[in-house]
Amino acid sequence: MSNPFGLIYGGAIEANEPGKVNIRPVRYAVDGIEAAANLFLPADYSEKNKKKYPAVTVAHPNGGCKEQVAGLYAQRLAELGFITLACDARYQGESGGEPRLRDYPANRIGDVSGMVDYLSQLPKVDFSRIGALGICGGGGYTLACAQTDKRIKAVATLSMFNSGRVRRNGFHDADKEGAQKRLRQAAVARAKELRGEVEYIGFLPPDKTDEELRAQMLTLPENTLYRDGIEYYGLTHKHPNATGSYTAESFMKLIAFDVEDRMDLIDQPLLMICGEKADTLYMSVDAFVKAVNADDKELYTIPNASHIRTYWVEEYVCAAVNKLGAFFGKKLK
Questions:
Q1: Which of 43, 190, 223, 294, by CA, is between 20 and 30 Å from 204?
Q2: Number of helices and strands (H, E) in the chain?
Q3: 126 exposed, middle or buried (CB, 10 Å; 0-12, 13-18, 19+)?
Q4: Helices marked H in the chain — which ranges?
Q5: Alpha-carbon distance 201 to 77, whole Å?
Q6: Cis bond leading into 99, ω under 30°?
Q7: Which residues, in sequence order, are CB contacts of 27 under 8 Å at separation 6+?
Q8: Exposed, middle or buried, 78 (CB in 10 Å: 0-12/13-18/19+)?
């Protein structure tokens, strides 16, 4: 991997230079488990002056890692003057936790609060101006965190994915009848795990060549989540810490989770961004409607964008960053 920080996106930081955005790999504990994160510092950052900065947490998508889209948006927001933190979820990426790739909603929600904990203890961060951004599954978990963690003063999502609803009902709620079957499969996987055999499932076909992945993509409709997901995670932005997999027993926790259940608890300023052509758009719309106590809220759709194209296509990234910069700039001032 050519980037010294392992970053996989266009325009990624190659070296820390004075007068430019800098990156610091950091480690800290969340509930006794080590979290690995990248801290991005604005170009005018200095330990010597008295200036304090607004800060933003950035939670990565399901199956992703901090070096991909979360890092891209963290870096771009740092370019706008925010201290940002992109963290690998515990049990995933470079963070600690066993078994690997466990995906419990409570853990992911705790990861967001853990980022707030870390930022709030930095001398250069203004504790009263911390915001949160979550991408894809990280968006759902960030919304869930903001429901009860009022240290988060403004919350935003990009291409939000409601993990529990999809695991329970199927994509587009097309398999509600299958929930009991999935729970029974999770119970079997849990029993195996207790015997030392960890079972994994995921959207990215394992151990396939680039040619096989491209062939798999061609069997799926264009601009759809799973086709674009194979392209992004398997080909264009491949990273060893982003396997697209998780433990099969995670369904025991995931199926009982739904970020929509407590959207009424969000009263902070809320911005939800999604692609106009995203096949996940319904998740953002439904959650947004239920945020009845967020008087200051906006649902913003990026023209022509699909779900994962907001991760890396410059036109769509610029549109999202401009919106996020204006939102956090105003709400965290």
A1: 190
A2: 10, 10
A3: middle
A4: 69-79, 105-120, 137-148, 163-169, 179-194, 210-218, 225-231, 251-254, 281-289, 314-331
A5: 33
A6: yes
A7: 34, 35, 36, 37
A8: buried
Are 262 and 207 within 8 A, CB to CB? no
Please tell me the distance from the alpha carbon of residue 94 to that of residue 91, in angstroms, as a whole number: 8
Q: Spell out the domains of the chain, with CATH numbers in brackets.
A: 22-174+258-331 (3.40.50.1820)
Contact criterion met (CB below 8 Å) for 70 and 135:
yes
Structure tokens at 186: 């999770």
Token readout for 87 is 């963290």
Distance CA 236, CA 231 (A): 6
- Smallest CA-to-CA distance from 41 within 18, 61, 11 is with 18
As a whole number of angstroms, the distance between CA 231 and CA 151 comes to 37
The CA-atom distances, in angstroms, between 265 and each of 143, 293, 295 are 10, 7, 12
The strand pair at 154-158 and 125-135 is best described as: parallel
DSSP characters over 217-278? HHTS-TT-HHHHHHHIIIIIT--TT--SEEEGGGHHHHTT--GGGGGGG--S-EEEEEETT-
CA 116 to the chain's CA centroid: 15
Burial category of 194 from C-beta neighbours within 10 Å (exposed 0-12, middle 13-18, buried 19 and up): exposed
Token digits for 261? 């259940």
- Number of Cβ atoms within 10 Å of the Cβ of 193: 16
Whether this prediction's pTM lies above 0.85 is answered by yes
Decide the pairing of beta strands 33-41 and 83-87: antiparallel
Q: How many residues does the chain have?
A: 333
Single-letter amino acid, residue 104: Y
- The whole-number mean pLDDT for each consecutive block of 10 residues of the chain, a chain of 333 residues, reads 93 97 98 98 93 98 97 98 98 98 98 98 97 98 98 98 98 97 98 97 88 93 94 95 95 98 98 98 98 98 98 98 98 95
